[in-house]
Amino acid sequence: MGVRLSQQLRIGAYILKQRLSGVRRYPLVLMLEPLFRCNLACAGCGKIDYPDSILDRRMSVAEATAAVEECGAPVVSIAGGEPLIHREIDRIVDAVVARRRYVYLCTNALLLEKKLDLFEPGPFLSFSIHLDGPRAVHDRSVCREGVYDAALGALAAARARGFRVSVNCTLFDGVDAGEVADFFDTVTGLGVDGITVSPGYAYERAPDQQHFLNRHKTRALFRAVFARGRRRRWPLSHSALYLDFLAGNRSYRCTPWGNPTRNVFGWQRPCYLLGEGYAPSFRALMEETDWDSYGTGNYQKCADCMAHCGYEATAVADLAAHPWKAVPIALSGIRTEGEMAPDIPLGDARPAEDVFAGLVAERAGAQPPAGSSANPSGQ
Fold this sequence. Notes:
Distance between the termini: 36 Å
Shape: globular
Order of helices and strands: HEHEHEHEHEHHEHEHHEEEHHHHE
Strand order of the largest sheet: 7-6-5-4-3-1-8-9-10
């Protein structure tokens, strides 16, 4: 597995504490987005379709620190946008690490070598480099040639400096299972500490709407990938039950509060992938969100989602309650043949609502949240 034993034990102790305290909903990973601005415009991304007045906003160090403390999750994923554009990203990372949270700084790595001197290697910091497959696949995904090679160069430089480095891989329709397996072999051979993999979410604002996987294709693809990886030791950074879910062997509903999102607008409802409103506090997010109105089978925008930021927390909770479920996988691997588990019916899902334009108009005219700042220069 691509998660250190010390981190697994820390998270396990955290989950046990929540369960013993009778807490029904609790976060595992805080998704912290200190800005939306990016230096790429990927075809499958729905995160950067904002006017400049919003793209120029930056979360302050104090605001980021307050979000970490307010949420209390043991892991913090710093995303965006491209977080290395933020002028104070090193101070944000230092503040989170000082609170002994496990930090995954998600980056396309174009600025990583230039910024390495800002950070100190340590057990609580990992760089999570976005790579969607081998060179041709990744460069096509990010809509720019040469990004794959730049990312591999930055990966090697970071590892040479003693940093923990993982790879974050998003898969889209049309990708070849053999190419994915070979790519996992390649990055494993480079010594990465972990591989995070997920089917791409169908962002409604993404420029390319033709290459998102539906649930059947996702299950078939991951079965084909895992069948090729049966004797390969990939450091996949997921619970065994989430990987089993991707292969169609389990029926799960998502846990959107497991990876709550704090960005320059506030606490995003309902999840990292879907922004349909904002709460003024983490407590309001958890207590006032109508969770039952979202998720596969409940809302059309969630129909094909099988992303780890929604379902990993479900799998982890299932594993914590029923640890014996992982035993057959540990002994025999993930099943890649035979009948799949029944999927969630979609017929009763409420229709998708078009809320983006209204939210942008509201937020573009609003003052930034208290403690945030604007940085028109971008870097």
